[in-house]
Amino acid sequence: MRRNSIFFIPVCVDTLALLLLNCSKFSYVFDEDHFINSLADDVRIVKKLPKELASATRVVKHFRSWSGVDYYEMEIASMWDEYQVIRAAKSDSRLANNNLPPDFQKLHCRACYQALQFKPPIEAMAKVIILESIPWWKVKDIDSVQQRAKGYCPLTPKEVGLFLSALGFTLNTPIYIAAGEIYGGDAHMSDLQSRYPLLLNKEKLASDEELEPFKKHASRLAAIDYIVSVESDIFIPSYSGNMARAVEGHRRFLGHRKTISPDRQDLFFLNMHYQHLVC
């Protein structure tokens, strides 16, 4: 067993690479047992720290972001000589994707896209929405124009509508909006709605009763949108945030499903030119 396999979840213990899950948080969204069983042949995972390690020497370690295999095999592995328990501090310290040996990359992908699965109620709710959609298919001084010109801002609903029209999507194309509350509300969506009447979201495709268990849990609602996005015929992110990148990677893992990533910087100037022409 390779020691770097211990770094896929927050806390790890002893040289046998026993992994300790933070159950109060991990199991809140993810299927803990599925994760453990899926990686059983590669990594030994436990839910609680073994009693014999309760008083063991331990350390909290902040891993260096985007590090390669050498960093974990040479620098981190040597820590086992001094500590029996190593706790990985919460961060986005990720394993570098480039130049990984094939077996590391395969385990990396399986952990992210196969072993890491949402809890059954979340999966079930997302599938209900997918099935229902099939028939229909802190304050800063920011120059918003400058930010949009650099491509730093999400596309507006109007820009999304123009982009879809330019790509040839027809009026009767069902479009699922994978997002929380839209800035500006329905008024801000009017232009996109006029171009594409079949705008869908989880609130339209599921009843209040079906969504009730998830309404006060933003992370679970986001998980539902994630699943629907992964299963969509075409995925078009209006912004390249963490969720969009995760969805795109997941779709590639499942067989390179079609994803269209707009160039927001170019679209800003095209939209400005378009507005000048129609004025």
Automatic annotation (TrEMBL):
It comes from the Eukaryota. One of its GO terms (molecular function) is glycosyltransferase activity. One of its GO terms (biological process) is fucose metabolic process. It comes from Anisodus acutangulus. Residues 1-31 form the signal peptide. It is found in: Membrane. This is O-fucosyltransferase family protein. Keywords: Carbohydrate metabolism, Fucose metabolism, Glycoprotein, Glycosyltransferase, Membrane, Signal, Signal-anchor, Transferase, Transmembrane, Transmembrane helix.
